[in-house]
Specification:
The chain is 62% helix and 0% strand. It is mainly α.
Length: 412
């Protein structure tokens, strides 16, 4: 459990302490984190003043405090300064890409046979690795615009290495694989290291940037494929990092019903925040559709989040339009491809618990409205119709028919 969640749990517990009980003072560091967290939320609320349907817990990068941001920028400036000083006493022809490139091109053009016999095409990526790593030392695959690495000096300098104007290149020439080899041996391992040690799957901006760079590399560079060892390691690292988040950073509190009756209480607000944080994480995992296998995504997003945490939050939600809204939000983030070409009238297996919950909710809504006035009965029937629609959209026709039989509402 993250320290921020721990602090919030402590606050909720303290809110139930009876009057006269000893007051518990949070540590100074915890008080600072609480103050920074509330300040960030206040800024986001002001920024969202013109928007509707935003829920606490969906904001990206909730845990990036101002002090952490300042520390990161200062460290980045220090690294940039030291990087620029590293080769101060080295001649340019030995530490700059263009002069090094020119030396090898001259060797290849004037002494082609010895050049090939020395396997320079295979050695160049290793030779240039320290310089490429140095230039990319502050490159962050979790930041917006990280896919612009092709605008860096090393890429532009080496892009046309091995090509001679007016001469058709030999497809077997190893020099043509210089850039793909550097991408495979330098960029992918760096992305893997950052994914394992820095990436927060709960951060929408980080996840979007990471998915974007991986899609670009897999589309543009033939060496980046599932049969490549470095790529396989990256995929395993992504899955392991998500699993660590599921175990360490996600928490769904359980409260007695009477505690949640006060919608302004800390317990109620904390439950809602954790619920929407789970929805955000599930959406983050589902955004890997097309990169990770459907089986793995369903294991992580449906078994790991929906069935393990989200259903607990739904069970604590009042049988009202609020529940419909939450279930609609969940249904809309599922990839539509999952529901294509399904046999019979049954949806995919990991969604069966969610479907059973919807059937139960629809049945209870219908039963509880029997002794209500006409307006409330109409509202309940509208909610049941919405639940039926959600089931139909998930191709769970068997469950939709079950709702129809229980409530006498026709399936459309």
């Amino acid at each position: 459990m993250s320290s921020s969640i721990q602090i919030y749990v402590i606050q909720c517990i303290l809110s139930f302490i009876v009057k006269g009980a000893p007051k518990v003072i949070l540590p100074e560091e915890a008080q600072r984190r609480v103050a920074e967290r509330e300040a960030r939320r206040a800024r986001r609320r002001r920024a969202r003043a013109d928007f509707v349907n935003h829920y606490e817990g969906l904001s990206s990068d909730d845990e990036q405090s101002q002090s952490e941001d300042i520390k990161y920028k200062n460290e980045l400036e220090r690294i940039e300064t030291e990087k620029n000083q590293l080769f101060e006493d080295v001649e340019e022809e030995f530490c700059k890409f263009k002069p090094i490139k020119a030396h090898f091109e001259k060797w290849k053009n004037e002494h082609g046979e010895p050049y090939r016999e020395a396997y320079i095409g295979l050695c160049l990526p290793k030779l240039l690795t320290p310089l490429v790593k140095l230039e990319m030392i502050t490159w962050n695959p979790l930041q917006t615009g990280c896919d612009m690495f092709e605008q860096l000096n090393w890429f532009k300098s080496l892009l046309l290495y091995g090509f001679t104007r007016g001469i058709t290149p030999d497809p077997d020439d190893q020099d043509l694989k210089l850039i793909p080899s550097i991408v495979e041996k330098i960029l992918i391992p760096k992305i893997t290291a950052v994914t394992e040690g820095v990436w927060d799957p709960l951060s929408t901006s980080q996840t979007t940037a990471l998915i974007g760079i991986i899609r670009k590399l897999s589309n543009d560079y033939p060496t980046i494929n599932i049969n490549n060892k470095n790529t396989e390691t990256l995929m395993h690292t992504i899955v392991a990092r998500i699993k660590r988040t599921l175990d360490d950073d996600i928490f769904m509190p359980l409260y007695p019903k009477w505690v949640l009756e006060n919608r302004g209480s800390g317990a109620y607000l904390f439950l809602q925040r954790q619920f929407w944080a789970c929805i955000k994480l599930m959406g983050s995992i589902l955004s890997w559709h097309g990169i990770l296998s459907d089986k793995m995504i369903q294991e992580l997003a449906l078994d790991g989040v929906l069935n393990r945490y989200v259903l607990l939050g739904l069970q604590c939600t009042e049988l009202s339009y609020e529940l419909i809204e939450k279930c609609n939000t969940i249904m809309k983030i599922f990839p539509k491809q999952w529901f294509e070409n399904l046999e019979d009238d049954t949806t995919i297996a990991p969604l069966q618990p969610f479907c059973r919950f919807l059937v139960m909710a629809a049945t209870n809504m219908d039963k509880s409205s029997k002794d209500k006035n006409e307006l409330e009965r109409k509202e309940a029937r509208d909610n049941v119709k919405q639940i039926t629609k959600i089931l139909v959209n998930m191709k769970a026709m068997d469950h939709a028919i079950n709702v129809s039989n229980e409530t006498s509402i026709q399936v459309r």
